[in-house]
Amino acid sequence: MKQVPALKIDGITIGQSLAIIEYLEETRPTPRLLPQDPKKRASVRMISDLIAGGIQPLQNLSVLKQVGQENQLTWAQNAITSGFNALERILQSTAGRYCVGDEVSMADLCLVPQVANAERFKVDLTPYPTISRINKTLLALEAFQVSHPCRQPDTPAELRA
Amino acid sequence: MQVGKPILYSYFRSSCSWRVRIALALKGIDYEMMPINLVKDGGQQFSKEFQALNPMKQVPALKIDGITIGQSLAIIEYLEETRPTPRLLPQDPKKRASVRMISDLIAGGIQPLQNLSVLKQVGQENQLTWAQNAITSGFNALERILQSTAGRYCVGDEVSMADLCLVPQVANAERFKVDLTPYPTISRINKTLLALEAFQVSHPCRQPDTPAELRA
């Protein structure tokens, strides 16, 4: 697929972030990243798919290259605002402390990076108070900090935390 | 409490809706179909009623067991967890990972780049090339992946969620006049799947909202 991420684990290589995460969940089940209840699991997957399938692919690097430099910002902003308009409404029924109830789930793993993209593309987040609140709560957790783009081995010096 | 049949909001030609129709057919789940025309009246998915049901303003959406689920793969995984036979995901976690990877490649990596709302944005004169590029990029990767995963079907010899994604995407490829010669594995598997009843009854040409001129 010529894309990241790819994970080499247990003798196989998996592409597609959500397929990787579901494999990790099935083989290393604790702590959970998907709730036990099927209806809540459906909400987690719906939110994850909305972001991973409905927003990010429309504003990733290869698509932005195709729309041309003068159109890129508007294009990315449109993709994100359309998706966030829907997500903000959905979260109003599913969210507790986090995207779905009060446990961190795969949906939260999708939310934070997408909000970071939104900030990079200068999307106004005022219309999205639930998204913003959950994002802030999640960013305080250690796993979201150690994994942050500003703390990676390949983070350029000028962007390093 | 009286529980009615599940209700599927679908458009005959929507490849995402077709995936769910196949799943419902394979699992023998009886349901009511509510057609949502994505083109008529400026797009019925934008109506206030439909938006209230599914804020994503997209099909498919499935009303089942007192909840409404959007996103075709989330729907299919819910059906799998609550109506587990026949299986749509293998038992082995590594094979499940292959099924999900292929499904996500199609549902997240190809289809969203060539759906109706994106094509509207690229403009009419660019639409065909844009859609063809999205599909060929994705199919180039998929053909290679299938060479390691495929048996009779996308992953081994059992029909899985990956197959439910493949057939509708090949139909899109044909609609956008993509040359399928470089993809013999995709073509073979597609042909084998189309012979199965669930893929036939769910076909766009046989839906309640299929226009007369496209009806089988």
Automatic annotation (TrEMBL), chain A:
One Pfam family of this chain: GST_C_3
GO molecular function: glutathione transferase activity; maleylacetoacetate isomerase activity
Recorded metabolic or biological pathway in which this protein acts: Amino-acid degradation; L-phenylalanine degradation; acetoacetate and fumarate from L-phenylalanine: step 5/6
GO biological process entries: glutathione metabolic process; L-phenylalanine catabolic process; L-tyrosine catabolic process
Catalysed reactions listed for this entry: 4-maleylacetoacetate = 4-fumarylacetoacetate
Domain GST C-terminal, first and last residues per copy: 37-157
Domain of life: Eukaryota
Enzyme Commission designation: 5.2.1.2
A single GO cellular-component term on record: mitochondrion
Keywords associated with the record: Phenylalanine catabolism, Tyrosine catabolism
Cofactor requirement: glutathione
Residues in GST N-terminal domain copies: 1-32
Similarity comment: family membership: Belongs to the GST superfamily. Zeta family.
Protein name per UniProt: maleylacetoacetate isomerase
Species of provenance: Microcebus murinus
UniProtKB/TrEMBL annotation, chain B:
GST C-terminal domain segment(s): 92-212
Keyword Isomerase: yes
Pfam families from the UniProt entry: GST_C_3 (PF14497), GST_N_2 (PF13409)
Gene Ontology CC entries for this record: mitochondrion
Reaction(s) catalysed by this chain's protein: 4-maleylacetoacetate = 4-fumarylacetoacetate; RX + glutathione = an S-substituted glutathione + a halide anion + H(+)
Keywords linked to the UniProt accession: Cytoplasm, Isomerase, Phenylalanine catabolism, Transferase, Tyrosine catabolism
Cofactor dependence: glutathione
GO biological process: one example: glutathione metabolic process
Highest taxon, organism lineage: Eukaryota
Pathway recorded for this protein: Amino-acid degradation; L-phenylalanine degradation; acetoacetate and fumarate from L-phenylalanine: step 5/6
Compartment annotation: Cytoplasm
Gene3D superfamilies for the chain: 1.20.1050.10, Glutaredoxin
Domain GST N-terminal: 4-87
The UniProt record lists the keyword Hydrolase: no
Any one GO MF annotation of this record: glutathione transferase activity
EC number: 2.5.1.18, 5.2.1.2
Family the entry assigns: Belongs to the GST superfamily. Zeta family.
UniProt xrefs under PANTHER family: MALEYLACETOACETATE ISOMERASE
Name listed for the protein in its UniProt record: Maleylacetoacetate isomerase
UniProt source species: Microcebus murinus
Lineage start: Eukaryota, Metazoa, Chordata, Craniata, Vertebrata
Name of encoding gene: GSTZ1
